[in-house]
Amino acid sequence: MPRLAKRAATVLIGAAAALLFFMASPASAATFLTHAQATSQLSASGITWSSSGGCSDRNNPTCTSFTDVRQVTISGIKTLRSSSGCALNVTGGTETGHAGGTYSHWNGYKLDVSKYACIGSYIKANFTYVGYISGWGYQYRSGAGNLYTDEGNHWDILYYNCGGC
């Protein structure tokens, strides 16, 4: 009887482990936000946003939308705001009209911010200069690996992670 009980316990434990494995979400699954969730977090951190069209429609390139932005991206811009002490104004989010690709605006990885002197000085003083990326601009990499590209009239920021949040 003890041998049978041992086998039954092994089968039950194996079945429970398999069930947990298949039902659990992956630890690295991204969290995507609604426009309202993202703007609430930005406002609470003192970060502003604007659009040339005065709108937030994700399918309109003149709008600034945060629909389906990644939580890591919003956490990253909040980290930049708190560590730099600079005013930040987001001018580009997940709306259509940006370049495509895996690590794109549309996929929630990138934000554009106004090119204020304070944030430019902070990026240049604290991040590593990568070089000039033809067709894009001057690029800097943070210690966390995020990329900050001076595209002439704004900073294009690619958040792989939240930058130490």
Task: Report what the structure shows.
By secondary structure, the protein is of the alpha+beta class. The protein has one domain. The protein contains four helices and nine strands; from the N terminus they run αβαββαββαββββ. It has helices at 2-23, 35-44, 71-84, 117-126; strands spanning 32-33, 48-49, 69-70, 89-92, 110-114, 128-133, 137-141, 147-150, 154-158. β7 (137-141) and β8 form a beta hairpin. Mean pLDDT is 86; it is low at 8-27.
Helix/strand/pairing class, anyone? alpha+beta
Number of strands: 9
> Order of strands in the sheet with the most strands?
2-4-5-9-8-7-6
Q: In angstroms, what separates the terminal alpha carbons?
A: 55 Å
Low-confidence stretches: 8-27
> Describe the biggest sheet?
7 strands, mixed
Strand content: 15-25%
Order of helices and strands: HEHEEHEEHEEEE
Radius of gyration over alpha carbons? 21 Å
Helix content: 25-40%
Tell me the number of structural domains: 1
Put simply, the count of helices is 4
Mean pLDDT: 86
What global shape is seen? globular
Map the helices and strands.
Blueprint: H1 2-23, E1 32-33, H2 35-44, E2 48-49, E3 69-70, H3 71-84, E4 89-92, E5 110-114, H4 117-126, E6 128-133, E7 137-141, E8 147-150, E9 154-158
Parallel strand pairs: 2-4
Antiparallel strand pairs: 1-3, 4-5, 5-9, 6-7, 7-8, 8-9
Brief digest:
Helix content is 34%, strand content 21%.
Defining traits:
165 residues, seven-stranded mixed β-sheet, two-stranded antiparallel sheet, globular
